[in-house]
Write a structure and sequence with these properties.
The complex is a heterotetramer, with two copies of chain A and two copies of chain B. Chain A is α/β, with parallel strands linked by helices. Helix content of chain A is 35%, strand content 17%. In chain A, the strands form two sheets. Chain A has a seven-stranded mixed beta sheet, sandwiched between helices. In chain A, helix 7 links the parallel strand 5 and strand 6. In chain A, helix 1 packs parallel to helix 7 and helix 3 packs parallel to helix 4. In chain B, strands 1-2-3-7-6 form a five-stranded parallel beta sheet, with helices on both faces. The radius of gyration of chain B is 23 Å and the shape is globular. Classes of the chains: A alpha/beta, B alpha/beta. At the B-C interface, helix 6 and helix 7 of B face helix 6 and helix 7 of C. The complex binds thiamine diphosphate (TPP) (2 copies) and magnesium ion (2 copies). The site of one magnesium ion has 7 residues of chain C, from strand 4.
């Protein structure tokens, strides 16, 4: 399966297993979503199990809060992460705090799926990576898969989780493990082991990172599309790096991170989001707090520039293999 | 439609250069009266008691738009129940309504004083607005879910929620069901069908529609009821609620409690003073009722109409309750700064408790003696409850939930970072 | 008002346990026809050309609510201009309008193909909706500020904005006034009174009200005009715009372009299909006009009424333009997936260019020959402009703004962190 | 002047100097704002120079964008920072990006004033510190004064600035320099040198931090109310700390920070906001990137817990002098 098929399969499985699961969002019903992630689900499971909503992100998240309080498990799609801001009040003030403020009487067990990230010439409003705007909010879990297998397993875990989950989908790798070499043909998921996805129910637990490549010299923390960019950069530099795919960025798998950095003594953090106050800052702070005496070099951050995502400068903005390689070398050279 | 005199005066003031011919100007609405000025309720569109028609519950919204501008009133000036909306409730029910309203007021008095005595940080009364929450709670089924604002404490009282629990929430003490986490009056009770009250205005309106959609989705028979203030109708979530309610035909009762004020801003800041809040529903194809919010019978009757309609799977109704916030916005507010002192007393729709009491007397089911006795009984009851609640602690004195609970319920299970932080605090 | 057959079928499907008596059910609106089904425009409320009344511009909104449900049409089936809304424009003006609409369509064709040829990433046509932007631009003063969506390219064309500049924006080349920063079609031109188009739906509607308030605040004579799609009216900013416009009586023309579709969602998902988008204005006390958006004369006349009203300091008007999105939502869309193939052709209100052309012929001011000649001339013009624009580069080929400009205009002056990042990139 | 008077004076001065300045927000007109910051301004300058708005934060920021495009300089008040989220889309997608996306044709020179922070028993929705949700957004300046003099000088600079400024006011110190000792009487501003505020026009430049106390052993970075808490903790521990009041948190005065930490070799960062992905994370990352070889101890963060702000636990949540002192000692003891 490619990533879209895996996500579709996860929702199909959950609609089948749990009558309280329903899916809604802009264009997700009859049409199956602009990225086709919900294709066929309305036809198969019925009109009210997967339907279109008005274009009002705040409205559809607000509706999901009420449904959650009733006892349903809504899975909502925000068409692009760039359009989640109209729902920010409902997410921050309501979804994230409901369990706390009601002392556990009510909760909002919803999954908010939304495609994020660049690399598709989507310009300023189809390319953003807003994950740090959610990791700062107490009460939210934030999940970002990097391949079809994890996408399905993590999405099922998210839907079954009793806490709200912001599920960010790296749209650039929906169809293949894009490694940042935009000048080279994209290899399809079918050639990738993680495209071997069971048809049936299975889960990948939230909160557990995955070591994609173990190494001795340096630790690289990444998630989403950047995981593939990092692997390419590591190959190209020949540096013996340990590459960690965080998968759940909050609550993050701090154990895996700490163990690795204590072993390697060096760390590079990579994300697409703008650098300042990005999630890389939190990772950097966590690492220096826990591994200070093991660090042999400053922790490097490779991130999007602190500008909006400019249409014509896709590849100058996108933190590709060259910038990652540069950071790897810098961190290795430092004494 | 010319801008108010004041606006023009001040627009052309401040020695600006002479205006261009047909220069535009900004209209800033102002209330008819400010402190020191004569009372004026001229922009309040009243109808005679009994005048508004009562359509069948399956009427097309397009056929009843007039009811968004009329005012449904049942009690006339002499306290008689008149017209097609007269709900024909038995005396027993009316006395229960009166009791709940009086208990709500007595409760407010007690908790207001508790705040003044430093026993808590903050309090909000609903004085003058008791009929709205109490009458609506009496029409709704116990299983229906309420999504109120901070000014519908009457819902909990009418549903028999223990006063001691309510007070304990306000006092943030060891008995507070919300473990001291919420600002006073932001109650929550799943058991009593009251959704966790948010400090952020308007959010509950669309959530109620979602709950109602869920009930319909499950082919259940429960409906949702939501309240919002006149000022808060300006928030996007009000629009979201009407949009989703109309599109999915959600079984919800959507109430705008127009108490004329939003802190210091009069209703004309939330929408053109020339129109009604009920009429917002028209553009969504939803039915709307504008009702005398200080008339227990009118609120009861209008709510009955909307509830029957929703249960018949005919969707949501918007009800505007025309009432008046007789006291300050909260214990942090001083209304004498921005509105005439006598405004509450001069309010044309009177006081809901007095009016229902008068009606009961009018039909020979009540007397001043019984009224006084009931007042005394309720005062005692509240006093006793207050003493018990305070015995569980008050804010900053006596006991409260254990500090370690501060780290609970952020997530279903506390992740590593919260366990760590809890240890850092040493609790 | 019973839920659609389909909804019921599917609600009771999936082998659920038998429903409770008077069980509720969720209504999910569906378009009358999906691919492979018979065309059906039954829910479109049409009026005869010339039938709608034309009130004076200072009419009270409460007196003209009917116009939110009527349909203002001027051109009848034979291409004659009839009724009180007939604007009585001279042939010269009509021919200019026709020319702008045809140029807009030719421009769309060219840029659509450019995208298909890989010269840019994305494009959006306004085919079938040309009358809205063109007629409105012709009524507005050049000094009035436009806050459009991505589907009013006709505004720039009618205001004479150079085609090469427009194309350069779409191609993100070295000549792009926006320096390659924006997605194609998200134009901006302060000089031509067109506000920077946002990728986020609805935001411009309230911004336009703010601009109009500023003009009134400064006792200026300029007004603002804003456009929003039918689907986007569900966003909170639509509600904000109507609220602020009514409260402050902002001189703004607020247009809802109801082209029946929001990507794959039909208009009934944005609001109860039984009502009109124009009627949203009623609850705010704003006047509303529902107009045949494919009738150049009707759009012109309705806009004239609203503009004169706004300039007379009487505030905003909401205009619903009933039109049809004849092509895909964008180059990323395939409408055959979700609506019947013949829908565009079967659209009851026809094509705005054909209708205006027919009217001009009807009054003896136009002919098929002249039409063909004009088509040819415009095609040539667009071709020439296209060649010139492409000589400045296309997306991913040829020149574009220098990379270092990527770090400019985030702030007025680049702070240390952006200077550092620019150095890191080595530009 | 106390802080409210200083803010009022700044707006008064700017209304007088610039006819394009206007003020609006909920209850700011006739009433003068719930914290009285705009008291008397409507009466003095006219109804349309300072007026009430509908309760629609998204609406009033949207209106301010249009006004800015016309050429006005709106100063808007969001009654509490906790209520800024309904405006988040307008701020992130419009205000912050307008200059960039229009290549400088349009800009939104607005100042968004809003009271933030805890210490007043305001519960979850009158106590939040959302600054990091704005520092992550390219195109916004974020300013936080800590005393009356700076409040006036910075607010005037913000109003005159051609870029949008999020101006966060630490409400706990409106009336006095609260140092976290809630059990002790609050000293009034009148006893504080910074309460000596010129009546007339003056500015304090954006982007410049202020060293409140120079010291040799450790650098403490703080802003807003926390500045006073830190000074108290430093006194009580007797540690020779260099205390830096950031004043403008973005773009931050990185020069002042770097110079200080290179001198002291130790650093503690203090804020009220929830710890995870708070602005402290960015400060921590900046410091370790620039001062790695000078650091003798891990950088410590003292921040609000990762929970909503609980009403009954005001002082257990609020990062008071004791927690700051603890962090100072920890950082000093580390080798
Ligand atoms: C989103 C949001 N904005 C502002 C506030 C501050 N605030 C609290 S109550 C209030 C006035 C509400 O007035 P109204 O809706 O009429 O309700 P009422 O208090 O009159 O019952 C305001 C502005 C808030 N709590 N939430
Ligand atoms: C806030 C936001 N949500 C969602 C989108 C994605 N989107 C772009 S266009 C569109 C449909 C808009 O339909 P409508 O308002 O009817 O305008 P039309 O395209 O028909 O002219 C959607 C959902 C967006 N751009 N912004
Ligand atoms: Mg009110
Ligand atoms: Mg549309």
């Amino acid at each position: 399966m490619n990533m879209i098929q895996a996500l579709n399969s996860a929702m199909d499985v959950m609609l089948e297993r749990d009558p309280n699961v329903l899916i809604f969002g802009e264009d997700v019903g009859f049409f199956g979503g602009v990225f086709r992630a919900t294709e066929g689900l309305q036809k198969k499971h019925g009109l009210e199990r997967c339907f279109d909503t008005p274009i009002a992100e705040g409205g559809l998240i607000g509706v999901a809060v009420g449904m959650g309080a009733y006892g349903l498990r809504p899975v909502v799609e925000i068409q692009f992460a760039d359009y989640i801001y109209p729902a920010y009040d409902q997410i921050v003030s309501e979804v994230a705090r409901l369990r706390y403020r009601s002392a556990g009487q009510f909760n909002a067990p919803m999954t908010v799926r939304t495609p994020y990230g660049g690399g598709i010439f989507g310009g300023q409003t189809h390319s953003q990576s807003p994950e740090a705007l959610f990791t700062h909010v107490a009460g939210l879990k934030v999940v970002i898969p990097s391949n079809p297998y994890d996408a399905k397993g993590l999405l099922i875990s998210a839907i079954e989780d009793d806490d709200p989950v912001i599920f960010l989908e790296p749209k650039r790798i929906y169809n293949g493990p894009f490694n940042g070499h935009h000048d080279q043909p994209l290899t399809a998921w079918s050639k990738h082991p993680a495209s071997d996805v069971p048809k049936d129910y299975f889960t990948v637990p939230l909160g557990e990172a995955r070591i994609l490549r173990s190494g001795e010299d340096i630790t690289v923390l990444a998630y989403g599309t950047m995981v593939h960019v990092v692997l390419a950069a590591v190959d190209e530099t020949g540096i013996d790096a340990e590459v960690i795919d965080l998968r759940t960025i909050w609550p993050v798998d701090v154990g895996a991170i700490t163990a690795s950095v204590r072993k390697t003594g060096r760390c590079v953090i990579v994300h697409e989001a703008t650098r300042t106050s990005g999630f890389g800052a939190e990772l950097c702070a966590l690492v220096q707090e826990r591994c200070f005496y093991h660090l042999q070099a400053p922790i490097e951050r490779v991130a999007g520039w602190d500008t909006p995502y400019p249409h014509a400068f896709e590849w100058e903005y996108f933190p590709g293999p060259a910038r990652v390689a540069q950071a790897l070398r810098k961190a290795m050279e430092a004494q | 439609m010319t801008p108010s005199a004041k606006a023009v005066r001040s627009a052309s003031s401040k020695g600006r250069k002479p205006l261009k011919p047909n220069a535009l100007s900004l209209r800033i609405p102002e209330p008819k009266a400010r402190p020191g000025e004569m009372l004026d309720f001229g922009d309040l569109h009243l109808s005679e008691a009994g005048a508004a028609r009562r359509p069948p519950i399956d009427a097309e919204p397009s056929e009843i738009r007039d009811l968004a501008y009329d005012l449904i009133r049942v009690l006339d000036d002499r306290g008689r129940s008149v017209g097609p909306w007269a709900p024909g409730l038995d005396a027993e029910t009316l006395r229960r309504g009166l009791r709940f309203m009086m208990l709500t007021r007595a409760y407010d008095e007690r908790m207001y004083r508790a705040q003044r005595q430093g026993k808590t940080s903050f309090y909000m009364k609903c004085t003058g607005e008791e009929a709205v929450a109490v009458a609506q709670a009496m029409v709704l089924d116990r299983e229906d879910m309420c999504f109120p604002t901070y000014r519908q404490q009457g819902l909990l009282i009418a549903r028999g929620y223990p006063l001691v629990e309510m007070m304990s929430q306000v006092l943030s003490n060891e008995n507070d069901p919300l473990k001291g986490r919420q600002l006073p009056v932001l109650y929550s009770s799943r058991e009593y069908g009251l959704f966790s009250i948010s400090g952020n205005l308007g959010t509950q309106f669309i959530q109620a529609v979602g709950w109602a959609m869920a009930s319909a989705f499950k082919h259940d028979v429960k409906i949702a009821a939501a309240w919002i203030g006149d000022g808060s109708t300006a928030e996007g979530d009000f629009h979201h609620a009407l949009t989703f309610a109309s599109v999915y035909r959600a079984p919800a009762i959507l109430s705008v409690v127009n108490n004329q004020w939003a802190i210091s801003s009069f209703h004309g800041i939330a929408g053109d003073p020339e129109t009604s809040f009920a009429s917002r529903a028209i553009g969504y194809g939803l039915p709307a009722l504008r009702v005398d919010g200080n008339d227990f019978l009118a609120v009861h009757a209008a709510t009955r109409w909307a509830v029957d309609r929703a249960r018949a799977n005919l969707g949501a109704t918007l009800i505007e309750h025309v009432t008046y916030r007789a006291e300050g916005h909260s214990t942090s507010d001083d209304p004498s700064q921005y509105r005439p002192a006598g405004e509450a007393a001069g309010w044309p729709l009177g006081d809901p408790i007095k009016r229902l009491s008068r009606h009961l007397s009018e039909i020979g089911e009540w007397s001043d003696e019984r009224h006084a006795a009931l007042e005394k009984e309720l005062l005692e009851m509240v006093r006793a409850a207050g003493r018990e609640a305070e015995s569980h602690g008050t804010l900053g004195a006596g006991s409260r939930a254990s500090v370690s609970t501060m780290f609970e319920d952020v997530f279903k299970e506390a992740p590593w970072h919260l366990r760590e932080q809890r240890q850092q605090l040493g609790v």
